[in-house]
Specification:
This protein has 296 residues and is of the alpha+beta class. It folds into two domains: 3-201, Alpha-lytic protease prodomain-like (Up-down Bundle); 208-293, Alpha-Beta Plaits (2-Layer Sandwich), CATH 3.30.70. The chain contains eight helices and four strands; from the N terminus they run αααααααββαββ. It comes from Pseudooceanicola lipolyticus. Its main location: membrane.
Length: 296
């Protein structure tokens, strides 16, 4: 079992524990804000299950039907998770509206706050684990899950603050008001996650910093070639796809051209983890003015 799959499984288990704690906190208090928090945790469990399936699929090697691999399964999972976050926000807004119509005093608020605090601490700790390891493993599904938990931590903190202020002041409208503010924040978070994930599904190029590294590697490691041009990149989960045309002098033998390509591929593989590289060799008269000059 890979590290990514273990973390995804851990998210599912933790999500069930946190859901139980938050449901208990809501049952003890009757708070609309805590109910909204529990609703989001329900979404967390569904999203964690989707992420677990996605990382298992993404880990499969390329096959006849998927020659480029299954990496985009993680991006699809991240989109689903973003949609689930938005759905959670809409459910919270509905509960907040009900709370505005009939505000009421809460029962056992301090006990509910304590239980909710325990759930929040668990989520915050696991959120950090997911984001650190997700970036290290370059897993969109784990990063999305971590961002989702981060939104959940903010939700829990906001819900707790609204409940605490309502208890101190006796203004019970603060409970649904805080739930509304939390829902707006979650909507923004979910929308951002969807946008980021869709960019990968639509074969968006790698970030500018990574592109600069790729160009530098080609320029410094392609000694024997004239230039490179028509560089294209895209990312899909953990994989980065790089393809370009490499121009060599017309009298270069096939063996020498192949040696140059091998050297460039090895350097790119070291600089860009999990890179899939395709190089098309062309004769000298195919050079373009906009190409990447070879310095070596």
């Amino acid at each position: 079992m890979t590290t990514i799959i273990k973390l995804a499984l851990g998210s599912l288990v933790l999500g069930l524990v946190v859901l139980g704690l938050k449901t208990l906190a809501w049952w003890m208090t009757g708070s609309v804000a805590l109910l909204s928090d529990a609703l989001e945790s329900t979404v967390n469990v569904v999203a964690a299950f989707a992420a677990l399936i996605a990382v298992r699929v993404a880990a499969r090697p390329a096959d006849a039907n998927h020659p480029y691999g299954h990496h985009k399964a993680e991006l699809l999972s991240a989109v689903i998770e973003g949609v689930m976050i938005v759905i959670a926000a809409l459910l919270i807004l509905r509960e907040a509206y009900t709370g505005f119509l009939s505000p009421r005093a809460l029962e056992a608020p301090l006990g509910g706050l304590l239980i909710n605090a325990v759930a929040t601490v668990l989520n915050a700790a696991w959120c950090r684990v997911l984001l650190v390891h997700g970036r290290r493993e370059r897993s969109p599904a784990l990063i999305a899950d971590g961002k989702h938990l981060r939104a959940d931590v903010i939700t829990s903190a906001g819900a707790a603050l609204g409940l605490l202020l309502a208890v101190v002041t006796g203004w019970w409208l603060l409970d649904p008001l805080m739930a509304t503010l939390v829902a707006v924040n979650i909507l923004w978070s979910g929308g951002k996650l969807i946008r980021e994930s869709v960019s990968g599904l639509l074969d968006e190029a790698v970030p500018d910093a990574t592109l600069a590294v790729i160009r530098e590697v080609i320029s410094t490691q392609a000694g024997g070639a004239v230039q490179a041009h028509d560089l294209r990149t895209r990312h899909a989960g953990q994989a980065t796809f790089i393809d370009f045309h490499l121009v060599v002098p017309g009298d270069t033998t096939v063996s020498d051209a192949h040696e140059v390509c091998d050297r460039v591929e090895a350097a790119l593989a070291r600089a860009v983890p999990d890179a899939s590289i395709t190089i098309h060799v062309e004769p000298g008269h195919k050079a373009k003015t906009s190409g990447i000059p070879v310095l070596g």
